[in-house]
Each structure stands twice: as C-alpha cells, then as structure tokens.
Design goal:
1 helix, 92 residues, 5-stranded antiparallel beta sheet, single chain, alpha+beta
Length: 92
C-alpha cells in the first residue's frame, strides 16, 4: 500500500504524483471517504517524469471493486504487513 498525491480526479480518469514510476498495466486505487474505502481497478495510460524524482501517473478507471466493509480492515492489515516485509536475499 502506497500513499500518493492526487493531481486530478474525474469520472474519465485520474492523475497521481509519485516518487517512482509505475509500470504495471493495471493497478487498484483505494479512495476513502466519510463512509468506507472504495477500490477502483485502473488501466495505466501514461507515466511521465516530472523531474526532481517525481512522476505523474495517468490512470483510466475500468471497474469498481465491491468490497464488504468487514473485509477492508483485513485487506489493509495484509497490505501493511506486505509493505513492511523484508525480502531475504536470493543466493546464487
């Protein structure tokens, strides 16, 4: 799970600012509002370097994932654990 800065969000797409490029063709974006998070599957339209180590990432929404509110906490905990996991070096 990564936190990104939004530059623009509309029904046609969104632009995010991040400190590294994204190469995956499809990603899931979580948006939180007053109720509970919503998850949107998006297609990568472009990843453009802005300079100074930042990139603008253009995404086109494809599908809204329906996630039960009870499952959101478990999902976030799993993502946090994966984020903090230290990979063991692979020996040659």
């Amino acid at each position: 799970m990564q936190t990104l800065v939004t530059r623009d969000i509309s029904t046609n797409g969104m632009a995010l600012i991040h400190n590294r490029p994204i190469r995956e063709p499809r990603i899931v974006v979580g948006l939180r509002d007053e109720t509970y998070p919503r998850f949107i599957v998006c297609d990568l339209e472009h990843c453009t370097e802005l300079g100074y180590g930042h990139y603008v990432i253009g995404l086109r929404p494809d599908n809204v994932l329906r996630v039960e509110p009870d499952d959101v906490d478990a999902m976030e905990q799993t993502l946090r654990q994966a984020e903090h996991a230290v990979e063991e070096p692979v020996s040659a």
